[in-house]
Amino acid sequence: MKRKVTLKQIAKELDVSISTVSKSLRDSPEISEDTRQKVQAFAKLYNYKPNLIALSLKNKKTKTIGIIIPEIVHHFFATVISGIEHIANERGYNVIVCLSDESFDKEVINMEMLANGSIDGFIMSLSKETQLKKDFHHITEVINQGMPVVMFDRVTNDILCDKVIIDDNLAAYNAVHDLINNDYKKIGLITTVDYVSVGKLRTDGYLKALKNNDIKIDEQLILKIEDIENCTEPIEELISSQRPDAIFAVNELFAVTAIKAAKKLNIKVPDELAVIGFTDGIISTYSSPSITTVSQNGIKMGNKAAQMLIERLESEDEEEHYKTEVIETHLVLRESTPTLK
Amino acid sequence: MKRKVTLKQIAKELDVSISTVSKSLRDSPEISEDTRQKVQAFAKLYNYKPNLIALSLKNKKTKTIGIIIPEIVHHFFATVISGIEHIANERGYNVIVCLSDESFDKEVINMEMLANGSIDGFIMSLSKETQLKKDFHHITEVINQGMPVVMFDRVTNDILCDKVIIDDNLAAYNAVHDLINNDYKKIGLITTVDYVSVGKLRTDGYLKALKNNDIKIDEQLILKIEDIENCTEPIEELISSQRPDAIFAVNELFAVTAIKAAKKLNIKVPDELAVIGFTDGIISTYSSPSITTVSQNGIKMGNKAAQMLIERLESEDEEEHYKTEVIETHLVLRESTPTLK
DNA sequence: CTGAAAGCGCTTACAG
DNA sequence: CTGAAAGCGCTTACAG
Q1: Does B119 touch chain A (CB under 8 A)?
Q2: Please, are residues A247 and A190 in contact by the beta-carbon 8 Å criterion?
Q3: Nearest by CB to A144, which of B1, B56, B75?
Q4: CA B180/CA B187 separation, integer angstroms
Q5: Cβ-based neighbour number of residue A159 at 10 Å
Q6: In Å, how far are A100, A114, B245, B276 from A160, measured between CA atoms?
Q7: Coil, strand or helix: which one is B152?
Q8: Which of A51, A93, A149, B325 keeps 20 to 30 A from B193, CA to CA?
Q9: The pTM of the whole model exceeds 0.90
Q10: Measuring CA to CA, which residue among B74, B98, B100, B73 is closest to residue A299?
Q11: Which residues in chain A have their CB less than 8 angstroms from residue B49's CB?
Q12: Run of H or E including B165
């Protein structure tokens, strides 16, 4: 076992000072060609690599980005991480991932922990509980300490910082509008409870599309799911009792569950029931019939978030001008809505 | 903007030495009740939190685990991360995630970077390219430096270290054996190229099951996919030309693609074609028909890997006794194989 | 009971 | 051209 070699050891071996070794390795012109070569050769031989923790302490930057997300076992968040990771890597940053598990406390603990020197900035999406409590003190605190934060997807107006979102409202509006245009009359909505920011926005988009087309809003056709784990029964109930001719679901899971429910009730998808989901992921692609969805490009969102954060970290001036970047969406047409185009 | 406060600043404010502050905050009995309280009150007021980077440098441990995986946009790997994260968090560790993108070079670069002090140990799964090249010098090097490594899923016998796997061979054997027992005669195999370790093992399990049941191996029924992105065509070709009555696929994607292909060819699943997949993920659950799979519990694998790593990190004695932990699997019966039980 | 010193591994302004 | 010193933020053995 050969431990990693340090400047000190090299200095000792070569009988020079630590400063000389350090400067030689950084190609300082202060040092004579001769010693420089000698040191570099030796360092190479022993595979010297500077200790990044020591550098972090010295430079007061870690070249590490902290990511806080509600869950990782969720295709959308995984794609965002992937998007962040690739940009981060390109620019020499590493990525620490913490999961809040939709819990406020875990979100707070994780942020506080990472804020104690481990990272240079945050990219995060709020936990459900945080959105419910509307308590953002942990985020304000971090920002006040001068650590930049970029929020994505589940954001809040209560915090001033850079943000990356899609236009949830508009995307939902357009999807529902398309359904209406294609003569669907009785469009059901399967959504989340209102405190989930993106769920609320998508619900609003649905409502607006109906209103703008003079369709009366029927509360019976609107299902707000509290507990995602147990969404099968209420969805079956909605479809069997209301018999909508189309369903707009605010995520993939609700969409595919609607399809499964319809099958069970012997309702043919798409002939008797069209379905549009949200978030273009694996489920929509591989479901049968495959599901038309509003794409929500997690890779792009992650890329953008990473770019914004790194730019802020590396820009000299501390301009307080925060941006909100809106990633475009579009409808990915698949088998569940054959008549749309 | 109020920057984070340091021991030095507290010492200055309170007109005591840094040592006194440090000891007070760590409740050292060396310090008088009086000063201790004064310091603690002040620290609390200013929300003092020790700088973790400084602690890392001092203690020569970072309380951080490095994870290197081929991809994150892959349900199985996401579940493993989740499993690691939860145990890590419980025990006060953070998690840095790096993606190799199935590339040898990226795997090497990421490992070298993290090995320079950023983490205490690795949990990793090999990239395809690394498995193809059989070049593991980067891993040996890290281990030689005294940094523990736990490998999972895609492991290699060429490296001595702790490992977490499932019995891929046996699981495949059992699945195929079950098919045979249920009177399926013409069982197709959709697998990866042989250099992917787990693909090879599952292929071997398939072959062994046939042999043990005196079924002649028909190479025509075996499809080895090189490029996962373009698996649709060869799979369609296999099914249409060979007309198997059952398919054993070494992952979810191949399984669901087989089902889609069968539908296109007007072959009824499961009546005319039974399908068993591998890795119990979202696709299998939500496909129609849902797919019977060999479960491969990523959460458990992640939990175990994290436990093994942390135990090694925190155990006093440097025992060189490496363990390979085998996580049990079982067949999750779904609609694609109605006759199995 | 308190504090100066040394040290973790590095960089850099300064002295010689 | 080389090296001693100070410093990043912390801890701890030791002196007083």
Answers
A1: no
A2: yes
A3: B1
A4: 8
A5: 15
A6: 21, 20, 60, 50
A7: strand
A8: B325
A9: yes
A10: B73
A11: 112, 115-116
A12: strand B162-166
Rounded to whole angstroms, what are the CA distances from B61 to A3, B115, B275?
14, 12, 48
Return the axis-axis angle of helices A298-314 and A75-90, rounded to nearest 10°: 40
Q: Tell me how far apart the alpha carbons of residues A298 and A126 are, in angstroms, rounded to a whole number.
A: 16
In order along its 341 residues, chain A shows pLDDT tens digits of 777 899 999 999 899 999 999 999 998 888 888 889 999 999 999 999 999 999 999 999 999 999 999 999 989 999 999 999 999 999 999 999 999 999 999 999 999 999 999 999 999 999 999 999 999 999 999 999 989 999 999 999 999 999 999 999 999 999 999 999 999 989 999 999 999 989 999 999 999 999 999 999 999 999 999 888 889 999 999 999 999 999 999 999 999 999 999 999 999 999 999 999 998 888 999 888 999 999 999 999 999 999 999 999 998 666 678 999 999 999 999 999 988 77
Q: A80 and A305 in contact (C-beta within 8 Å)?
A: yes
Interhelix angle B52-59/A52-59, nearest 10 degrees: 140
- Host H or E run for residue B210: helix B197-212
> Strand D: which positions are within 7 A of a protein CB?
1-5, 7-14
CB contact at 8 A, B203 and B263: no
d(CA B94, CA A67): 11
**C-alpha–C-alpha distance, residues B186 and B180, integer Å:** 9
Whether B79 and B153 have beta carbons less than 8 Å apart is answered as: no
The sign of the CA dihedral A314, A317, A322, A327 is negative
Residue B337: helix, strand or coil by DSSP? Answer: coil
Q: What is the DSSP letter of B217?
A: P
Contact A246, A179 (CB under 8 A): yes
Query: What is the 3-class SS of chain A, one letter each residue?
Result: CCCCCCHHHHHHHHCCCHHHHHHHHCCCCCCCHHHHHHHHHHHHHCCCCCCHHHHHHHHCCCCEEEEEECCCCCHHHHHHHHHHHHHHHHCCCEEEEEECCCCHHHHHHHHHHHHCCCCCEEEECCCHHHHHHCCCHHHHHHHHCCCCEEEECCCCCCCCCEEEEECHHHHHHHHHHHHHHCCCCCEEEEEECCCCHHHHHHHHHHHHHHHHCCCCCCHHHEEEECCHHHCHHHHHHHHHHHCCCEEEECCHHHHHHHHHHHHHCCCCCCCCCEEEEECCCHHHHHCCCCCEEECCCHHHHHHHHHHHHHHHHHCCCCCCCCCEEEECCCEECCCCCCCCC
A222: nearest Cα among A187, A253, A175, A184: A187
Residue A51 at interface with chain B, using a CB cutoff of 8 Å: yes
CB atoms within 10 A of CB B132: 15
Q: Buried b vs exposed e over A187-219: b needs ≥16 C-beta within 10 Å?
A: bbbbbbeeebbbbbbbbbbbbbbbeeeeeeeee
Nearest to B192 by CA among B160, B231, B243: B231
To 10 degrees, the CA torsion angle through A270, A273, A279, A283?
-60
Hey, how many other C-beta atoms are within 10 angstroms of the C-beta on A28? Answer: 12
Which chain A residues touch B287 with a CB distance below 8 Å?
286-288
Are A102 and A69 a contacting pair, CB within 8 Å? no
Count Cβ–Cβ pairs < 8 Å, chain A vs chain B.
154
Distance A16 CA to D4 C1' (A): 12
For B97, the token pair is 């995630």
| Total residues found in chain A within this entry | 341
User: Do A191 and A250 meet the contact criterion of CB atoms below 8 Å apart?
Assistant: yes
Cis status of the peptide bond prior to B70, with omega within 30 of 0: no
